[in-house]
Design a protein that fits this description.
254 residues; alpha/beta; 6-stranded mixed beta sheet; 4-stranded antiparallel beta sheet
Length: 254
């Protein structure tokens, strides 16, 4: 049996098949305010106020996006997000928190969140983030790219490392935001992409957080895909390039 949930449905003249959003927020006034505003935008919105209930609802329901507070009773947002990802759910997750600081943001992203918004925030900014996440999720198919031993499918949003010898390869799990950063570098492979360009394309114009968040994502991509893949061009940005085979006895690039 599913936990109690508040349902908010768009007006009859809204889109026939609106995106379904789940808000998991224990501040009831804030949750209700967000639900009313997002419903007015044309979304179908459900609300729960407890972490365990939110995990149950997100697991059993079919949602296009989850707005997830971190400080929740029952189970905090980090654990909810981590449990969803561990169970194979790739629904975009926008985390809300009263905390601030790079450590908390990095922790949230490491559990699989796609975006992060610190309270107090502008409602306009939240709507822009929601639309950006939904837009990227519904992006039209693109070709499969090969980069060294990596196959990057921008339609399925998958990265697979080929094993060679005709094997199926090993899939590398990326969050939606990590993939979006990789995609920006991939679209201009071999060229320098500035931190500002990545922020504009991945976080949109409404982002008001620390621009160094790009460094957090690049660091994560290097760890998952291999450090030589993304070069730092000091004072200019980043360049994605195919790793070159190392000569015997050569020292690894720094």
């Amino acid at each position: 049996m599913l936990p109690p949930v508040s349902h908010h449905r768009p007006a009859p003249d809204a889109a026939r098949h609106p995106f379904r959003l789940l808000i998991v927020e224990d501040e009831k006034r804030l949750a209700l305010s967000l639900a009313r505003g997002l419903t007015a935008e044309g979304y179908a919105v459900d609300v729960v106020h407890d972490g365990a209930d939110g995990l149950h609802r997100a697991t059993e329901g079919t949602y296009d996006l989850v707005v997830l507070d971190i400080m929740l009773p029952g189970m905090n947002g980090y654990r909810v997000c981590s449990a969803l990802r561990a169970a194979g759910h790739d629904v975009p997750i926008l985390m809300l928190t009263a905390k601030d600081g790079e450590y908390d943001e990095a922790e949230g992203l490491d559990t699989g969140a796609d975006d992060y918004l610190t309270k107090p925030f502008s409602y306009v900014v939240l709507v822009a983030r929601v639309k950006a996440l939904l837009r990227r999720r519904a992006a039209p198919p693109s070709p499969v790219h090969t980069l060294g031993d990596l196959r990057i499918d921008t339609a399925a949003r998958r990265v697979v490392r080929d094993r060679g010898e005709g094997g199926p390869g090993t899939e590398i799990t990326l969050t939606a935001k990590e993939f979006a950063v990789l995609e920006q570098l991939l679209l201009r492979a071999g060229q320098v992409v500035s931190k500002a360009d990545i922020l504009d394309q991945v976080w949109d114009f409404a982002y008001e957080g620390d621009p160094n968040i790009v460094e957090v994502y690049v660091s994560t991509l290097r760890r998952k895909l291999g450090a030589p893949l993304i070069k730092t061009v000091r004072g200019a940005g980043y360049r994605l390039e195919e790793p070159r085979p190392e000569a015997p006895g050569a020292e690894a690039p720094r």
